[in-house]
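Anyone else keep sequences and structure tokens together like this?

Example one:
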Amino acid sequence: MLTIDNIMETVNMIQNENLDIRTITMGISLIDCADSDIDASCRKLREKILRRADKLVSTGEDLELKYGIPIVNKRISVTPISLLAGVSGGDPVKYARVLDEVAAIVGVDFIGGFSALVHRGFSAGDRELIAAIPQALAETNIVCSSVNIGSTKAGINMDAVRLMGQTIVKAAELTKDRNCIADAKLVVFCNAVEDNPFMAGAFHGIGNADVAVSTGVSGPGVVRSVLAAMPDDAPLDVVAEEIKKTAFKITRVGQLIGNEAAKLLNAEFGIVDLSLAPTPAIGDSVAHIIEEIGIEKCGGCGTTAALALLNDAVKKGGLMASSSVGGLSGAFIPVSEDEGMISAARDGSLSIEKLEAMTAVCSVGLDMIVLPGDTTADVISALIADEAAIGMVNNKTTAVRVIPAIGKSEGEDLDFGGLLGSGPVMPIRKESPAKMIARGGRIPAPIHSLRN
């Protein structure tokens, strides 16, 4: 039952603690747009997205006014484009251009799904799409791309890992005059999920409904505020319980908006992704939550344990609130998008090695990390392999979104502006992994993958 206290608590979360619906994402299946003629396939794709998403933005705006809850982004995810490219042949960049055009027409912030799933090997269209990623992201403004190179069941496709290191370097070079922005729209996954509403890694998996609406909710500021009000000597199990209760309240907001948006848009309701996704805004930081738990500076000893507590409590609270929790739900640690992470990276408290350890217990992985511009493709491939190994062995989603800042060195800054924020160029180990990467092949799945 709603009380005045409940209502005022929610109002305070929105006005003072940065609670928001980070995104309403409409997932659209493009399977019925496949055609042996790429131009015909593009026409079908364009028509379907225009027809199904024409009211997505206006619906989000109406719900903002109705409930007084900010809905920061309206986005679209589509079936992995490699599937269409495998049928049509031709240059996959054509698909990217059409996606960019139609997304601009309907007014969304991003469109994701210029993607390929190659964890067990390459099928028709996969290699062509990966080769097209740098040009596609350089030519477009709001198209996002992802490639899944490994899974717990399949192992790690090291040939794909090698290709993705090269792809990231080429994408940076093609957009070096725009702060290497292409790589901010590219994610390399292990154990990618097919119902993720967050960019840049969103795609609409083939197991989903034809059209589905999902929400992504974020509230790091709310969680930090709750912890700041607790006594410093509160036991950690009590801290976890308060985070869980807070996550419950945040998830209910996402469930409400998602259900109503799906009805208004004549679509299936997908999932609520409860992810503490930070922004560069002051007070909206996962790093500051870790510091509120009791670590002097994010990156210090104890950071991984604090993040594990946070991530688990968030998931437990979300599952109490909704039977439709999905996506990546938990805590994100994108360096350039988190004011506290930026500060910790700048003063040396936070290293790539510590971030890698943290990814074993958080929701995604090495996210929005700026690397020196002379970082080689082999080193980036090895970094992807390391992160994929954490995901594969621990049966969790991990990802890499790194930006080699062409022309910049360790200690300099790269500024994207807006939600993508800015970040310092972080040092990375440069010992050559070239021999390992050149071997190719596949890292076999771990023994515990045999669960049937």
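And example two:
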Amino acid sequence: MTTNLLNLPGYKVVGVEESAHDYHINAEISNPPFTCEGCGSDRLIGHGRNAQVIRDMPTHGKRVAIYLENRRWRCLDCKKTFMEPLPAVNAKREMTERLTRWIGQQSLKRTFASIADDTGLDEKTIRNIFRDYVNELEAEFRFETPRWMGIDEIHLIKYRGVITNIQNNSIVELLPNRNKETIIKYFARLEGRETIKYVSTDMWMPYREAVELMLPNATIIVDKFHVVKMANEAMEKVRKSFRESLTPKQRRGLRHDRFVLLKREHTLTDEEVLLLSGWVRNYPELGLAHKLKENFFKIYDSCSSDEALERFAAWEISVTHEVRDAFSDLIRAWRNWQPYIVSYFDHPLTNAYTESLNSLIRVMDRLGRGYSFEALRAKILFTEGAHAHKNRRPKFERNAMQQPKERFLDDLNDGAIEYGVPDEGFGRVLMRSPKPPKDDYPHGANELPKNYGADINTLIALLEAGKL
């Protein structure tokens, strides 16, 4: 019974004491050394003992400690003394290898404090074991450098950088912040960064500067989502400017009906069209702002960067002084980032799936209150069964998909698929994922499998199934 309780090869259990919360197991090493570690002689004599306490995995809901009288040996030939080796004990800590592995695995699911309570170890020790475990995982899982990279951020206490593989809808890194220095350090250790062709990002200057410095071969594309969002924000500024002049009842009505102002006009129901017409008829400036918002969205129907520039120039002229202050941030952003914004019309990549990922991360953060950033990062990047191991080949689509942005699709071996991601206020955010070049597919069975990061759809499915 006592042997089964420990179940560790190399140890003989000689006694067990049980308390309300702990097992105290007295054991000895089954196979003492027969030869000297230094010279190989078998002329060994005992040279004292050293009492040690080795921590082991919890059993039956109780903490476990193994008490050993570890013998010291002396070689009669070379005079060297050495301690009896401890089987299955971690080289860095006085605990079993299985306990360190268990702590590492549990720390992806639970808080450090709860694991410390279950094992009787200090919380700092749990944190250090977790860091070592994550280092092992990072050495084990080497993610392929994305050819089409997405850079975004999420606010968890502070802004964190999110790096994605747009081509495979997967996440490859979660950075502690979004500073230029942090992004540069990430790029510096990235293998094959010269193969990155496109980087889709928002209008955050440190991203742009880091990419231009470290990825000179990459084309920067400002994500469509972040640009059109500014048009909706301008619409909201105009709406809020009317609040002071309205009665409390009208104010509540305008707040309740704000969604009809933010939705795309072609997606409105008959009832919503009626609501919208009432507001724009009674408040002309509100109607003007809504029309400008809609017309700005239509710029993204352009088939080339030249057409987009022409449409924007015409749109800017139509922005009258009554609402110009509300749209000034959008106009300024377009001017400052114009080359990178219009790149989208030749290379239509977006971070739409990254936005879905950000929602997923927030849910995981709420469910795991007490997670450190390091634990959340490891949970997202290294969850078992979530990794994409092959480049995605989209389903065949008809020629209608090829009509806009033809040069981009031809450049990428033709063929594309659009993924519609619903987003409040924006209708459907479309992300194009053109077919990867043939060189991206494995050439044969002997080729080592590639890991493209944690698949976003799989992470969502695991979360919905309660496995995250």
